[in-house]
Structure formats: structure tokens, C-alpha cells
Amino acid sequence: MAELPLAALDRIIRKSSGLRVSENASKELRSVLESEGEKISRQAGEFAKHAKRKTIIGEDIKLAVKK
Question: How far apart are the first and last CA of the chain?
Fold first, then answer.
């Protein structure tokens, strides 16, 4: 799928760790974040549908992350 840019992920890792980052590390983080993002989005969609909304709101995302 690869929707997230590697440069942004590289910056996140460098800022949080203070270390250099291999391209493989950025790709692995991208894979994990996209997978988790899809799970959270599906759950948030279920919350929105349950509330009879067609729009996912921030609160849906927060609830999905907690669950």
C-alpha cells in the first residue's frame, strides 16, 4: 500500500531517538503504522455508523484507539 512518505517517518524516528535511521527501519515503521491505522479506521467507522453518521470524527478515532 505504502501511503506514508518515508522521509516523514525518518524524521519521526530521528527526532524521537536522536539516532541515524536506515531506510529499512523507516519502511518497517511505515508498514506498522499503516496496518494499525487501518484497524483504527475500521473501528472508528463502526462507531460512526453506530451513531448513524456518515462522517468519522475525532472522537471516533480516540475511542477506537482506546479499544
Answer: 25
pLDDT tens digits for range 14-46: 999 999 999 999 999 999 999 999 999 999 999
Q: pTM for this one? A: 0.85
SS3 call for 55: coil
pLDDT at 2: 77
H or E, element range at 60? helix 58-66
Q: How far apart are CA 61 and CA 20, in angstroms?
A: 31
How many angstroms separate the CA atoms of 67 and 59, rounded?
12
Domains of the chain: 6-66 (1.10.20.10)
Contact status, residue 25 vs residue 16, Cβ threshold 8 Å: no
